[in-house]
Amino acid sequence: MRESALSISRYAKSLKESLKRSRINDISEIVPLLFTARGFIFVLMIKSFLIVFSFISAIPIPVKFIPSWTPENLRYFCVMLPIVGGIFGLIWAVSWQILSFVPAISSILRGFVMMILTLALTGGIHLDGLMDTCDAVFSRRDKATRLKILSDTHAGAFAVMACVIALMAKTLLFSDLLAHNADSYTLSFIPIYSRLGMAIILNNL
After folding, report:
1. Tens digit of pLDDT for each residue in 134-169?
2. Are 190 and 92 in contact (CB under 8 A)?
3. Residue 105 DSSP label
């Protein structure tokens, strides 16, 4: 216990001295100072969190705080997916509670607002993937052509139909849940479970 306290004290002093000697302008300058036996895993988890958050979220993060996509920094990528999903869930729950106290507007309109919120949080990255996939799968072409369609930046008819159906389905789902006074606590777990599913799939690739 005493050795542990001394090592932490020495580390804090060295970090303070290092910060005094140099003016820190970028997070990459601080990271090497934190690379100790005790802080290594924590730093990697923070890096993975920042990468995941910047990847699946449209909430802006300063570029200087986003680590590079190296195997080391991506070590806890899958672990951080449901954690970022938890942040989304919290925003969902707060928004849900606010909309629940606005009975003047219809449940369909409130469902539409929730749909826009979920789209704004992710920047539509999942919807973009769905559209590309539908264009490729429903083209009924050979594998090589389907892969070429996936890399195409243009949206086809199947992509547009998939987008409209997905947005309508989400709007109607939210409006129905609002009409039946669904619990915001339960709703907040939806983005957590969805990102957990992504983590399981990625971890088994």
Report:
1. 888 888 888 888 888 877 778 888 889 999 999 999
2. yes
3. S
Gap between the Cα atoms of 152 and 40, Å rounded: 40
Residues 6+ apart with CB under 8 A from 25: none
Q: Residue 1 pLDDT > 60, yes or no?
A: no
What is the rounded distance in angstroms from the CA atom of residue 31 to the CA atom of residue 65? 11
Residue 63 DSSP label: G
Give the count of beta carbons closer than 10 Å to the beta carbon of residue 200. Answer: 12
Q: Which two tokens stand for residue 31?
A: 């990271």
Collapse the DSSP code of 205 into the 3-class scheme (helix H, G, I; strand E, B; otherwise coil) and give the result: coil
Tell me if 122 sits within 8 A of 57, measured CB to CB: yes
User: What number of H helices and E strands is found in the chain?
Assistant: 10, 0
d(CA 130, CA 156): 12
pLDDT digits (tens, 9 = 90+) for 166-192: 999 999 988 888 888 777 888 888 899
Exposure string of 129-155, with b = 16+ CB inside 10 Å and e = fewer, is ebbbbbbbebeeeeeeebeebeeeeee
Q: Which helix (H) or strand (E) holds 160?
A: helix 157-179
Q: Is 45 left (phi over 0), alpha (psi -120 to 50) or beta?
A: alpha
For 102, the token pair is: 């606005």
